[in-house]
Amino acid sequence: MSDYQVISSSDLSHFTISVFKAIGCSSADAALAADVLIRADLRGIDSHGVARLEGYVRLFENGRINTKPNITVSREKKAIFTMDGDAGLGLVVAPRAMETAVEKTHMFGAGYGSVRNSNHFGIAAYHAMMAIEHGYIGLAMTNASPLVAPTFSRERMLGTNPICYAIPAGKQAPFILDMATSAAANGKLEIAERKQIPVPEGWLESKDGLATTNPRDLKDGGYLLPLGSDKDHGSHKGYGLGALVDILSGVLSGASFGPWVPPFVAFLPVLQGMPGKGLGHFLGCMDIDGFIDRKDFLDRMDQWIERFREAQPQSPGQRVIIHGEPEAIMQAQRAQEGIPLIDKVRAGLITLAEKYKLEHPFNH
Amino acid sequence: MSDYQVISSSDLSHFTISVFKAIGCSSADAALAADVLIRADLRGIDSHGVARLEGYVRLFENGRINTKPNITVSREKKAIFTMDGDAGLGLVVAPRAMETAVEKTHMFGAGYGSVRNSNHFGIAAYHAMMAIEHGYIGLAMTNASPLVAPTFSRERMLGTNPICYAIPAGKQAPFILDMATSAAANGKLEIAERKQIPVPEGWLESKDGLATTNPRDLKDGGYLLPLGSDKDHGSHKGYGLGALVDILSGVLSGASFGPWVPPFVAFLPVLQGMPGKGLGHFLGCMDIDGFIDRKDFLDRMDQWIERFREAQPQSPGQRVIIHGEPEAIMQAQRAQEGIPLIDKVRAGLITLAEKYKLEHPFNH
């Protein structure tokens, strides 16, 4: 394990806001974007937090991010709408779209928005969980850098295209399913590569279409496998879910889709002949109270969670984990104790601080 | 392979309608229920077609199906609603709910319905595809007989809980993703058991929590594994998707959920202390034209499909399969040439014919 420095979330937030302001974001947008990133770190999704701040800045420096976007609803019909993010940070565009979905839900019981001309939006859970603050059910998906090959192919055609549902409970922590539709999220490969350890077979294949356990093969022309890993174990389902996310986020909104999705990772090129603008998201919200008495629902969710937690363990000492529970525990802990930043991430943040002449709280 | 008899879909439909009428369904309900089953056979989903007719009749004989249901919308708020199926056939209740979702979509751009007090609804694709007839996007999910153990458990807590999305295209066949959230659908195990062949590791485990390739172990107290098969390969995602379906179909509607879902398969008992009525579905519909010009969308879907079909093959001779394409080809073929029924299925249908004194088109 690397050495690390523990930083309070407020210090980290303060610095992150200053970076977003330095590249031209308004104070409000900088605070929102920082909140999305810090939430990832708080929840223990370290791959999607400030570790990616350099990546967002790189996109800005390459002219791919508009830090003063005019975000508009370009089309709508009652509960549904399309939003154009004007090449803004996905960290800002997606929450704006979710706000609109929430407003639609106040009026129509549900709100669903497809978003084009956006960029990488951070953790899907941030956006879906905005619905929970209103007592609603939230949904967030996005297409992403093409890294996954469909079943029977060795070409990178889909992103790890996550799906997130956020569902409130009563006494229990909310149910938050936030999953890549690949066998493993790219962040897990990044961690293995950093630690120089092999990954399980079934996560990726090399550029020659061969099984490999070397995470480095992804950058060397290889590709990730869909959830299910191989046809016998249902990789066509993982590929189908990734395709669904691509269609709802990209085809439906007017964004780019499939292999043309403009990449976030630096090792993929931006392709010519894009069929749409930027990348796409799909966000949704539903009012529980239109289906069932809200109090009754929260009690039933608690019953569901308690029953699943008590399911007979596979082996002694194990127990079933409820989606969102480990992240809720981590968030409470890190809010109090601070966020550990490993050397490599801290070095990247110091580089940003020096480049943009910003004060920072990091040890050299 | 068994011997088989080829029956025209109209002869098979005629007989199936007569069975549903014999157990008390109205002519309209019998025709609808038969249409759902025959569509499965036409599309090549043999496990979910008339092969299950005996199962539905068994539920009726056990007093679990009301063949004269009073199906009602019990709660609603603009675009969203809950339907009570009054213990009717899921084959009838789900299309009724989908009709309501379509009407909501005419009015509000989207329609989402949660359904309780229903029964097994056949193939999810039938219901989701009802939206396509209106040029809409359709969604269908259902909870089901508890057969799947969550990650880190050996207890059957979830059904194979399918998710289906139906999305229209232009010149191309529609995109129809219809997938169980387990590594393998129960139908595949039934087929392997009938043929007495082993299944891949990663589909199920024995009642002692051990890896097995014997499909028979499921009935002997074993359990299916979620999509992903093991933790290293993302089984927590398959479990999460199955949980999501259970929550939207069961917890949200007021149906039973988790291990209490009243089973369709005869080898599971009906549990006491059910937290709701019958099993549950979740159905939805969205108007493409509220997001994007409809013609533009259909062209973009064709482009998406054509690009994916051309993706570089993993091995020579392979090609990427678009979801829904094989079933569309099969449906065109079987509509013309008839539906092959294997001995075991035909024998079951003859038993029904004799029990209810019905004319039938089957060879002994």
What's a concise summary of this model?
Chain A is an alpha+beta fold and 364 residues long. Chain A has helices spanning 9-22, 27-42, 53-61, 90-108, 124-132, 186-195, 235-251, 294-309, 325-337, 343-355, and strands at residues 4-7, 72-77, 80-84, 110-118, 137-142, 163-167, 175-179, 204-205, 211-212, 223-224, 279-286, 339-342.
Largest interface pair: A-B, 84 and 84 residues
**Quaternary:** homodimer
**What is the CATH first-level class name of the largest domain in chain A?**
Alpha Beta
Instruction: Please give the domain count of chain A.
Output: 2
- The count of helical stretches of chain A stands at 10
Instruction: Find the count of extended strands of chain A (DSSP E, 2+ residues).
Output: 12
User: What is the average of the pLDDT values of chain A?
Assistant: 96
* Low-pLDDT sequence parts of chain A: none
- How many strands, which pairing sense, and closed or not: the largest β-sheet of chain A? 7 strands, mixed
Largest beta sheet: strand ordering of chain A: 2-3-4-11-5-6-7
Query: What portion of the residues of chain A fall into strands of 2 or more residues?
Result: 15-25%
The dominant shape of chain A is globular
- CATH superfamily grouping of the largest domain in chain A: Malate/L-lactate/L-sulpholactate dehydrogenase, NADPH binding domain
What is the ordering of alpha helices and beta strands of chain A?
EHHHEEHEHEEEHEEEHEHHEH
The CATH topology of the largest domain in chain A corresponds to: Ribosomal Protein S8, Chain: A, domain 1
Helix content of chain A: 25-40%
Q: Gyration radius of chain A, to the nearest Å?
A: 20 Å
Structural class of the helix and strand makeup of chain A?
alpha+beta
* CATH architecture group name of the largest domain in chain A: 2-Layer Sandwich
Quote the distance from N terminus to C terminus of chain A: 18 Å
